[in-house]
What we know:
This protein has helices spanning 3-9, 20-42, 44-68, 79-114, 119-125, 132-143, 147-178, 182-190, 193-234, 240-250, 256-273, 276-302, 310-324, 326-345, 350-356; strands at 71-72, 75-76. Strand 1 and strand 2 form a beta hairpin. The protein is built from 15 helices and 2 strands. The protein has one domain (44-356). It is 77% helix and 1% strand. A two-stranded antiparallel ribbon has the order 1-2. It is globular. It is mostly helical.
Amino acid sequence: xxxxxxxxxxxxxxxxxxxxxxxxxxxxxxxxxxxxxxxxxxxxxxxxxxxxxxxxxxxxxxxxxxxxxxxxxxxxxxxxxxxxxxxxxxxxxxxxxxxxxxxxxxxxxxxxxxxxxxxxxxxxxxxxxxxxxxxxxxxxxxxxxxxxxxxxxxxxxxxxxxxxxxxxxxxxxxxxxxxxxxxxxxxxxxxxxxxxxxxxxxxxxxxxxxxxxxxxxxxxxxxxxxxxxxxxxxxxxxxxxxxxxxxxxxxxxxxxxxxxxxxxxxxxxxxxxxxxxxxxxxxxxxxxxxxxxxxxxxxxxxxxxxxxxxxxxxxxxxxxxxxxxxxxxxxxxxxxxxxxxxxxxxxxxxxxxxxxxxxxxxxxxxxxxxxxxxxxxx
Length: 378
């Protein structure tokens, strides 16, 4: 038998077969993710309103429990009275806040139209150090922009803000109407009292951390907005109030919001004043305010409430900004907090929670306090 004949009868090595069940599971995960992403994009207006309502409800639910426990002698505040007062207060507060934002948007649009002729020249002057050709190209590009068309689009989108506010108020009202049955529904849904208690602890942990984040962020944003308003007023800017409100709102967007707010304030100052020295001074002052409040005071007050990875925050910001736009940027941190806590309680997903946490420790080192029951105090 020749060598060629021997080799022809030898069995050939075949690559190992892939597990078909694993491939099928990966395909199902990809399909499920695609469907969820499609639903998030198509139903974004409803889902954004619902997510905002849940956050507002969680912020006020603990306050109602505290108020319901207050006793003056033998007289106390009934739970139903505290709930009705909370819903009315939330509705009035959201409508007032929305009205202020819409009025400032209207002021900005009118003022922007009045400065639209001066804006290309003022902005191109900022790039004079690149050379005359670059400055001319920037001026030509800005002059070709149809500012009125963009402003009309912004005005149309701003009109949806009041509709979203009304929807949030309705969601909050229904959540408060159902809150006394949350514990019973959760127990019957899970079918196990111990498991229902564990789910309740997870929910309370999410609510506690998100509430701490929002309360601290609101306080710091108010102080920052007031300080920027005072600086803009000192420089006699026409949009001082609008810049203060804008700074307050943008500070809820982590990392990026404060940078955008500082550059917008400097740009508005340069367009109106046309003085590079004043623009630079205003930029440095507002940048210092943002740095001190955002990088020193904010982390000091926040403590270990979040324990989120900075890189994870950027990824969450980019993802939810792409899916839900600007509202998604505001909701990115609360959503990430909830995702990290949920993943930390599921053994198979705990590696993801470790990646999302700042120090690889998704839970606080100290034991958490006993959660307040979801059922309102009678």
